[in-house]
Design goal:
Radius of gyration: 21 Å
Structural class: alpha+beta
CATH architecture: Roll
Distance between the termini: 83 Å
Strand content: 35-45%
Strand order of the largest sheet: 1-4-5-6-7-2-3
Oligomer: single chain
Number of domains: 1
CATH class: Alpha Beta
């Protein structure tokens, strides 16, 4: 009887964790090489190494920042320009994983808290953000970055006005 109970527990446990074949199901992998590339890219952004940040993007990659579309070059310039207004830019409380879907799509998801100090006032900002990177092979073909820009834009506008 005890053997039957153990067998049933093992059967139901294994069925509950079995993968399925649904197109948008798949494998979440924190150790995928693309996860490591995204960590390295975000570290490069934080130290204003925008060339390293952009090296994994396809030439024709589509970039969305809060649902506005840009080229990689435009976002590279804009993200780099933020370093003129903020110091000590970091990403905190980061979670990053790559999802390999059954339909062949591959996305890396990146949750973070952006932190930076306003150069003109010394005020520190912390803004929660989320990004995803869609891969084809080893290149990013689409990128989305979303965060509430209210605090960032207000601090940037104040800093820009003081620079005049």
């Amino acid at each position: 009887m005890k053997t039957l109970a153990i067998s049933l527990c093992l059967f139901f446990t294994s069925c509950a964790s079995a993968p399925n074949n649904a197109p948008w199901s798949g494998v979440v992998d924190e150790l995928d090489p693309r996860t490591a590339k995204v960590y390295a890219m975000c570290d490069a952004y934080c130290v204003n190494d925008m060339d390293s940040w952009a090296e994994h993007f396809a030439d024709d990659a589509v970039v969305h920042v809060n649902d506005v579309d840009y080229t990689t070059a435009e976002v590279k310039a804009a993200f780099g320009a933020g370093h003129a207004l903020f110091t000590d830019i970091t990403h905190e409380d980061v979670t990053c994983t790559t999802m390999r879907y059954n339909n062949g799509e591959v996305f890396t998801n990146y949750w973070y808290v952006w932190s930076g100090t306003v150069r003109s006032t010394g005020e520190q900002l912390k803004i929660k953000g989320y990004a995803w990177f869609r891969w084809e092979g080893e290149q990013i073909v689409e990128f989305f970055n979303g965060a509430d820009p209210t605090q960032y834009n207000a601090a940037a506008a104040g800093s820009a006005a003081e620079l005049k």
